[in-house]
Amino acid sequence: MMKGINIDTKVRLNNGVEMPIFGLGTYQARRGKETKEAVLAALEAGYRLVDTAAMYENEGDVGEAVRKSSIPREEIFVTTKLWNSDHGYDRTLAAFEESRQKLGLSYVDLYLIHWPVEGLRNESWKALEKLLKEGKCRGIGVSNYMTWHLEELFRNSSTVPAVNQVEFSPYLYQKNLLEFCRKHDIQLEAYSPLTKGHKLNDPRLDDIGSKYSKSPAQILIRWALQKEVIVIPKSSRRDRILENADVFDFVISGKDMKVLDSFNQDLRTSWDPSTAP
Ligand SMILES: NC(=O)c1ccc[n+]([C@@H]2O[C@H](COP(=O)([O-])OP(=O)(O)OC[C@H]3O[C@@H](n4cnc5c(N)ncnc54)[C@H](OP(=O)(O)O)[C@@H]3O)[C@@H](O)[C@H]2O)c1
Question: For residue 77, which of 39, 103, 178, 229 sits 20 to 30 Å off, Cα-Cα?
């Protein structure tokens, strides 16, 4: 993935589908104008991956922007997710259909289980397999799965998730999980790559950034890309949407990558699946 990557670079998932390595997150992008304008600004800036979820309550706006943009639907990769209260076989099928209708799209590119809900997740996975088989989504995957959640899934199904979307940044460098996913041909996708903003004022990021004339946010995004992880920074601001995409004209040196790796402090900015049974 690394050689000469750009905003159009895609990775081939384990089912043959190609997914952009870089995209826009939309958690906490407010419903209505804010989400629509952010998605349109991102598409205009060259983003081709948009990440939403039923829980974000902005699928309607994401879908409207995707449909309104001048970019053909098949060139845009849309991810949405099954919320925790919708687990179980039948409920999953109904929740997917509700998401699809809100998006106003005939298919979803990637449908993820948002969280490994205990007791029900394997039934939900069976529903995702059905959706995949029927072509209602082009890929299925999981989010917030630790290695033991994945191992349990392997015991119950022969469909390996295409993607595992987890929190991932130098401050939460989940090296074992990354290696586990790589070994099983599951593409890791980094959420909260900017630590939701919490660490953007770390002076050590400024030090590294100044070497490359890049901002702390750009260093964090580039670090994830150089780990061969798909990365989806969120911003609702056009200037930052542009800034976050301006990460393809430099390479962080091996030495600086090691320095960034050493920032790990197991920082989780939202929920913690490492305690989920
Ligand atoms: N699967 C899951 O459980 C899960 C959990 C969390 C997130 N996600 C997904 O991953 C996406 C990204 O994660 P996230 O939204 O949690 O956090 P993030 O991308 O790490 O950070 C977003 C925050 O950083 C600010 N920001 C963005 N670019 C900036 C820049 N260049 N300079 C300074 N500040 C900047 C944004 O504010 P402004 O918008 O005001 O610019 C926002 O407050 C989400 O939007 C969502 O799609 C998934």
Answer: 178
173: annotated active-site residue: no
- Ligand 1 centroid, distance to 133 Cα (angstroms): 32
Determine which residue's CA is closest to atom 11 belonging to ligand 1: 25
β-partners of residue 8 are none
Residue 144 beta carbon below 6 angstroms from any ligand 1 atom: yes
Is any ligand 1 atom within 6 A of the Cβ of residue 233?
Answer: yes
Which ligand 1 atom sits closest to the C-alpha of 112? 1
**For residue 21, what are the CA distances in angstroms to 88, 133, 189?**
31, 25, 9
Q: 191: Cβ below 6 Å to ligand 1? A: yes
Indicate the Cα dihedral angle 104, 93, 132, 103, nearest 10°.
10
DSSP 234: B
pLDDT of the chain, 277 residues: tens digit per residue: 456 899 999 999 999 999 999 999 999 999 999 999 999 999 999 999 999 999 999 999 999 999 999 999 999 999 999 999 999 999 999 999 999 999 999 999 999 999 999 999 999 999 999 999 999 999 999 999 999 999 999 999 999 999 999 999 999 999 999 999 999 999 999 999 999 999 999 999 999 999 999 999 999 999 999 999 999 999 999 999 999 999 999 999 999 999 999 999 999 999 999 999 9
